[in-house]
Design brief:
The chain has 141 residues and is mostly helical. It contains 7 helices and 2 strands. It folds into 2 domains: 60 residues, Orthogonal Bundle (Helicase, Ruva Protein, domain 3), CATH 1.10.8.50; 61 residues, Ribosomal protein S13/S18, C-terminal domain (30s ribosomal protein s13, domain 2, Irregular), CATH 4.10.910. A hairpin with a 2-residue loop joins strand 1 and strand 2. Keywords: Ribonucleoprotein, Ribosomal protein, RNA-binding, rRNA-binding, tRNA-binding.
């Protein structure tokens, strides 16, 4: 198992598919890195030699990945919150930042749906409290 940038890459996967396990490296950047290192993208991670792993590690050091990238992202969000920009307020309230609608969607950002129903007459009768509001039919309007 190869360890690059503090991440253990899966040994059974092709190196092209294993590199995106590192935060900040996607499929496109993985292909570019492998081309720069002149490595076969179809080679399995377990079949890489020590020299090839070192070559990959040196190439990846040129990019901002893992902890540095996470830290920069968090500092950008914190800066937006401190200056109280619209985006910063949306981050603070845990709502979508980029203009998506929230009336029916945004479940991923807002969390699990909580249903708030009305209290039925039977439940209020058992609890010993009478409903206080009159309906419009009873008041004659």
């Amino acid at each position: 198992m190869a360890r690059i940038a503090g991440v253990d890459l899966p040994s059974e996967k092709r190196i092209e598919a294993a590199l995106p396990y590192i935060y900040g490296i996607g499929a496109t950047l993985a292909k570019k890195i492998l081309a720069d290192c002149s490595l076969d993208p179809n080679k399995r991670t377990k079949n890489l030699s020590e020299e090839e792993v070192n070559k990959l590690a040196r190439e990846i050091e040129k990019y901002k990945v893992e902890g540095d990238l996470r830290r920069e992202t968090q500092s950008n969000i914190k800066r937006l919150q401190e200056i109280a920009s619209y985006r910063g307020l949306r981050h603070s309230k845990n709502l979508p930042v980029r203009g998506q609608r929230t009336r029916v969607n945004a479940r991923t950002k807002r969390g699990k749906k909580v249903t708030i129903g009305t209290v039925r007459k039977e439940v209020t009768a058992r609890m010993g409290t009478a409903p206080t509001g009159k309906s419009t039919k009873e008041s004659g309007k």
